[in-house]
Amino acid sequence: MIRAGGMEVALLRRTGQIEEAKTRLRHWRSVDPPSSFLRHEAVLLGAADEGLWTHLAADPERVLELVVDYMALGLWEDAHSLLARRYPSTGRVAEPGTALPQEYPLVAYYRGYCAERAGRSGGEDFAVASRQSTRYVFPNRPESLAVLRRAVQVDPQDATARFLLGSLLLSGGQSDAALGEWETARALDPKLPVLHRNIGFTLLYARGAAADALSVFEEGMAADATNVELYQGADQALSLLGRGPEERIASLRRYPGSPLPSTLVFKLALALAEAGRFAEAESLFPGRFFPREEFGTNVRQVYLEVKLREALALAHEGRRDEAATRAVTFGQPVPGLDFTMDGMKPFVGSPRFQYYSGELQALIGNDAAAREHWRRAAAGRDFRQTAFAHRAARRLGEASEAEWRPRIEAALAEADTYLFRGGHYPAVATSARGMLLRALGRIPEGDLALRQVFVLPDKGMPHHIARLALQEP
């Protein structure tokens, strides 16, 4: 009703009923004082409110939120005046990378559209929009469909309009139509920011075309070189295609910036570890800060995995003393690596890490230590770690079918429930699901689930875990 109230005030004002408009405005502002629409109507009725323009300057979408209500009422001049305003660049509090409204292509496209509806030419505004950056622009309103289609009609060679139209179509689930617009934009302007990222992930997720997606991601690395998601996408596509770690390393090494973003450090470190290039992997950690990401991958987990893989490789090579030395240091503080000073215990104590620690001790020849690690692993109850708990029980000779099949089936049901309800780590749950299916003897289903991991966000190292699992007999 607040929105309807704002419209009521606007219509009273535009029909010349100024005093009634002010009366209704006082009423609605008593209900919702912060309303940007009501604040704007107050300005149009003579009030001063410089803070409104700073507020709107912080996010161009706030401007569009007001504009679409004026458009719904057919108040094209009111909408156009908001779109044509030069908003202040000082004093605004905005997310990093957020453009000013006057630098935001959707604002310019709407401005051209409203100019046309008001009886003037919008060509110049459409031309301005076509030259503005598409980075951090996410069309989502139904009104944008008419606006962008009109822009394409005015200039079929407008790559920016086609890119944004494709993004809007994809948000409505129309992946084929989106790809059609994006491919046209790609032919018109192959250096358009974010374009290759969008095409690549849509090919990967909507069509399952990993090879085509990889080609687009690699092309994008030349056009939009510092877009981190291009490298993440290429890593996913290479994993789906079953390519080795050396190809993934070469792809990740193409990133031109320094320092390497943390998400790519984690992927590169694990790829190097998979390739047996442990010194290179370890060299990625010193001398930098790793920011914490909520529900992301923890640097401690990745670092410990590199050290674990190195120790296992040494043990397999028969270098038992060196492997034993590495094993003693698991979870211990490392000078120069501040993140090792705390928070390591949960990762070292996980069933997966304990299972592999047992394998390491068995290779070294320390059977008592191996069995102790496997006992700790077998006691794990988290469904995401049950497959490793089962493996540990098998190594102890204590994995009876009567006890473990119901336990594995219960863990599989937990994984299915987690994925049905939605959680922060779908790839971790899917990886666990694949390994549980394999433990039940349902190998093809398990392998399918493990491959599905590569089209889910790599939070918590699931892509690495799935790759290792798919390599095992």
State the distance separating the first and last CA atoms. 63 Å
User: What is the count of DSSP helices, taking H or I runs of 4+ residues?
Assistant: 27
Could you estimate the helical fraction of the residues in percent? 55-70%
Oligomerization state: single chain
DSSP strand content: under 5%
Structure summary, number of beta strands: 0
- N-to-C SSE series? HHHHHHHHHHHHHHHHHHHHHHHHHHH
Fold and architecture overview:
This protein has a domain at 400-473. The protein is elongated and about 90 Å long. The N and C termini lie far apart (63 Å). The chain contains 27 helices and no strands. 44% of the residues are buried. By secondary structure, the chain is mainly alpha-helical.
In short:
The protein is built from 27 helices and no strands.
Element layout with pairings:
Blueprint: H1 2-14, H2 18-31, H3 36-44, H4 50-57, H5 60-72, H6 76-84, H7 105-117, H8 123-130, H9 143-154, H10 159-171, H11 175-188, H12 195-206, H13 210-223, H14 228-240, H15 245-252, H16 262-274, H17 278-282, H18 299-316, H19 320-328, H20 345-348, H21 351-364, H22 367-378, H23 386-396, H24 401-421, H25 426-439, H26 443-452, H27 462-471
Helix pairs in contact: 1-2, 2-3, 5-6, 5-7, 6-7, 7-8, 7-9, 9-10, 10-11, 11-12, 12-13, 12-14, 13-14, 14-15, 15-16, 16-18, 18-19, 18-21, 19-21, 21-22, 21-23, 22-23, 24-25, 25-26, 25-27
Key features of this structure:
473 residues, elongated, mainly alpha, 66% helix
